[in-house]
């Protein structure tokens, strides 16, 4: 392996293949799967010492750490430009772990309002239940951020691209506002992907991903990851997660490691297809609007171009005729599957109003732009011309 200085010069694509590899005495090429929950000590004194202070590549219990999980953590941290990472059982375990581990009763959090339904639940129901004050703002309005952030604000939270309406938050500007009062910036960066976004370089302190999405990208395993400084990960996140049980399994970590090797190729192909599909659908007579950051009609098109290498793999569109017409179109799709995942090799259509965001009130959904005609389309790896034909064929019924 090259020295540390040369590793820092590797491209993301190269780091996603090689960084963090640990080889056993057998010199295996593919990463080993250490499918064990516990570890053996040579002596009782060695066990005692391990619990006092574990050294590098010394492990106690899979809930605390595991060699395969450590490889994934080191690789994704290198990819993201973070000092350290903690892998979790799911994306929501990452969101919950990042926020709950650092917050106490009486703390104040400012969050963008446009969030995935489960993220809203954590902020609205879980954190407030334990005495954390949460203020919601329109994430695209910097004046609302300025007015909401206070001298005692402990953290700000946002999705860099919102789920499902694809609003873009100005990462650098919001980070600057938060840092003026010493608040920690926590960003859910799933839609932007580790391939197209450098959130930490733009000012974010803590990045969370659902590894279930683009990182795995093939619909196999749940997983998540929290990335940040070594001090935050090891002194704040790790004590909370290792005692509350949110760690990633070694098998899932191995799957994620292998998936990272192809993530760059997959996500770039999906993003190119998404651009072609969005352009093909834009202006279709059966649609009220097409939402995609790569279209100039998107309200934050210039911002997306500035802070992301590409506009991502997700498209949203609003069908004329409401839910009945939308269901007719969804039921008419042949290639594109109806599901609630995203970032998969298979293209997936989701009706947020009746699935991922169904627990919200009509007023909440209206405020987030989630109409009864809104469809979230996750573009997969199929031929884009086939996907366009599938969509236009289904839309033709209207």
Description:
With 398 residues, the protein is an alpha/beta fold. The chain has 2 domains: 4-259, 3-Layer(aba) Sandwich (Aspartate Aminotransferase, domain 2), CATH 3.40.640; 265-395, Alpha-Beta Complex (Aspartate Aminotransferase, domain 1), CATH 3.90.1150.10. It contains 15 helices and 12 strands. It has helices spanning 4-7, 12-18, 44-52, 67-80, 91-100, 117-129, 142-148, 171-179, 193-196, 230-244, 250-281, 301-307, 322-331, 362-367, 384-395, and strands at 84-88, 108-112, 133-137, 153-159, 184-188, 206-210, 224-228, 287-291, 314-319, 337-338, 348-350, 374-378. It has a 7-stranded mixed β-sheet with strand order 1-7-6-5-4-2-3, sandwiched between helices. The chain has a 5-stranded mixed β-sheet with strand order 8-9-12-11-10. Strand 5 (184-188), helix 9 and strand 6 (206-210) form a beta-alpha-beta unit. The longest helix has 32 residues, at 250-281. The radius of gyration is 21 Å and the shape is globular. It starts with a helix and ends with a helix.
- Which CATH first-tier class of the largest domain would you pick? Alpha Beta
Q: Which term fits the overall shape?
A: globular
Q: Widest sheet: strand order?
A: 1-7-6-5-4-2-3
Task: Write the element-wise H/E pattern from the N-terminal end onward.
Answer: HHHHEHEHEHEHEHEEHHEHEHEEHEH
In the predicted model, the low-confidence regions spanning at least 5 consecutive residues are: 1-5
Mean pLDDT reading: 95
CATH architect. name of the largest domain: 3-Layer(aba) Sandwich
What structural category do the secondary elements indicate?
Answer: alpha/beta
Radius of gyration: 21 Å
Helix content: 25-40%
Number of strands: 12
| CATH fold field value of the largest domain | Aspartate Aminotransferase, domain 2
């Amino acid at each position: 392996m090259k020295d540390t200085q040369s590793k820092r010069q590797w491209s993301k694509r190269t780091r996603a293949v090689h960084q963090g590899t640990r080889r056993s005495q057998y010199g295996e090429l593919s990463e080993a799967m250490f499918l064990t929950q516990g570890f053996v000590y040579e002596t009782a004194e060695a066990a005692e010492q391990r619990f006092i202070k574990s050294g590098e590549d010394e492990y106690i219990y899979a809930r605390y750490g595991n060699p395969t999980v450590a490889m994934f953590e080191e690789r994704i941290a290198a990819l993201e430009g973070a000092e350290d990472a903690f892998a979790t059982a799911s994306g929501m375990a990452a969101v919950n772990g990042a926020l709950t581990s650092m917050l106490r009763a009486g703390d104040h959090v400012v969050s963008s309002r446009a969030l995935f339904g489960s993220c809203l639940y954590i902020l609205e129901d879980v954190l407030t239940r334990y005495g954390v004050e949460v203020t919601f703002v329109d994430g695209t309005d910097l004046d609302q951020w300025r007015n909401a952030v206070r001298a005692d604000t402990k953290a700000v939270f946002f999705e860099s691209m919102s789920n499902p309406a694809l609003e873009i938050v100005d990462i650098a500007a919001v980070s600057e506002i938060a840092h003026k009062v010493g608040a920690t910036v926590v960003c859910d960066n799933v839609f932007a992907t580790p391939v197209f976004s450098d959130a930490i370089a733009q000012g974010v302190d803590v990045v969370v991903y659902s590894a279930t999405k683009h990182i795995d990208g093939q619909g196999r395993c749940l997983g998540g990851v929290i990335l940040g400084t070594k001090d935050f990960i090891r002194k704040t996140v790790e004590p909370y997660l290792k005692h509350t049980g949110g760690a990633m399994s070694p098998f899932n970590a191995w799957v994620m490691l292998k998936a990272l090797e192809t993530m760059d190729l997959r996500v770039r192909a999906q993003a190119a297809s998404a651009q072609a599909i969005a352009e093909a659908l834009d202006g279709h007579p059966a649609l009220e609007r097409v939402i995609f950051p790569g279209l100039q009609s998107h309200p934050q098109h210039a911002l997306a171009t500035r802070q992301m290498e590409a506009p991502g793999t997700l498209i949203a569109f609003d069908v004329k005729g409401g839910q009945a017409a939308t269901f007719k179109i969804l039921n008419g799709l042949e290639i594109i599957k109806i599901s609630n995942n995203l970032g998969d090799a298979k293209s997936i259509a989701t009706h947020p109003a009746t699935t991922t965001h169904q627990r919200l009130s009509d007023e909440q959904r209206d405020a987030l732009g989630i109409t009864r005609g809104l469809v979230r389309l996750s573009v997969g790896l199929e031929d884009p011309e086939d996907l366009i034909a599938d969509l236009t064929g289904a839309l033709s019924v209207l």
